[in-house]
Amino acid sequence: MSRSVTVIGLGPMGQAMAAAYLDQGYDVTVWNRTPSRADALVARGAHLAASPEDALRANELVVLSLIDYPAMYATLKGAEDAVAGRVLVNLSSDTPEQARAAARWAEELGGTHLTGGVLSPPPTIGSPDMSTFYSGPRTAYDTHREALEVITGKTDFRGEDPGLAALMYQLNMVVFWPAMLAYWQAVALAGAHGIKAADIAPYVTENYAGMGQFIDFYAARIDAGDHTGDVDRLSMGVASMEHVVHTNADAGVDTAFPQAVLDAFRRGADAGFGADSFSSVLKLMKK
Ligand code: NDP
């Protein structure tokens, strides 16, 4: 394989990816809507393409790291002829449906689209410890796997459906953003009492570290359709979340987020699941 790659999109992620390729001695061509973001990379030997079309034509392997898929279409507008023969490895995040549509779009243009779902932040790019989801044509993945591992560590190929890597990414985002918002809620509540974020950090960290055992416990039961309220009852969850809402309100902290959790628990109790496990709210989530 030629050790040569194009990186389109130089936000914090794209910059880290292009830098990781340079570290490994790859010949790197870059393009970004705002050209100045390429300055440090060019100083290290990267080539700044004059246009998105030139960036595509420079290499068979083209890594895209943009804010979303519409940014890819906006970037490659007018350069569609140059997609033929390229393997577009799209590490921008978006929905599974966007990934499937992009795969069809690339195929119609004679190119190949491989979807990636990167979970790790920029400082970890290039580390062998990180793991990244991929899906799409297996042959394209196998051909470029070594080059992909340079930027995204261990690669986790989920299958030929281009939407699968995006789905796995979204599953993790469903957990990540609300988990972080829960943390910020705790920071706001602590702050209202003069307690600093750093002071509660060890306790919050321990709380999140213990989540694994809850997840394993509930996963087995949920898959077995078991929502028995032998260790936790939804009515207990309602009472507990009422305490959380009131504790925040009493401290003058916004309650929108805990109130949303309380509302979900109350809907479950109103539906008759009060004596069951709080996992029974799952039954209300499926449409
Ligand atoms: P951003 O998500 O902020 O994306 C920045 C890039 O998108 C820049 O190259 C920017 O160009 C380009 N862009 C934005 N809008 C347009 C547009 N309309 N047309 C053309 N280009 C556009 O930066 P990140 O590097 O943080 O993220 C890249 C991807 O990686 C995202 O999909 C993100 O969800 C994902 N990701 C990010 C992580 C992180 O911790 N940062 C972690 C895991 C995944 P310009 O420089 O000109 O503004």
UniProtKB/TrEMBL annotation:
UniProt keyword terms in alphabetical order: Oxidoreductase
InterPro entries cross-referenced by the UniProt entry: 6-PGluconate_DH-like_C_sf, 6PGD_dom2, 6PGDH_NADP-bd, HIBADH-related, HIBADH-related_NP60_sf, NAD(P)-bd_dom_sf, RedAm-like_C
Domain 6-phosphogluconate dehydrogenase NADP-binding per the UniProt entry, residue ranges: 5-154
Xref: SUPFAM superfamilies: 6-phosphogluconate dehydrogenase C-terminal domain-like, NAD(P)-binding Rossmann-fold domains
Residue span(s) of domain NADPH-dependent reductive aminase-like C-terminal: 161-287
Superkingdom as given in the UniProt entry: Bacteria
Pfam families the record matches: NAD_binding_2, RedAm-like_C
UniProt key word Oxidoreductase: yes
Family that this chain belongs to: Belongs to the HIBADH-related family.
Protein's name according to its UniProt entry: 6-phosphogluconate dehydrogenase
Gene source species: Streptomyces lasiicapitis
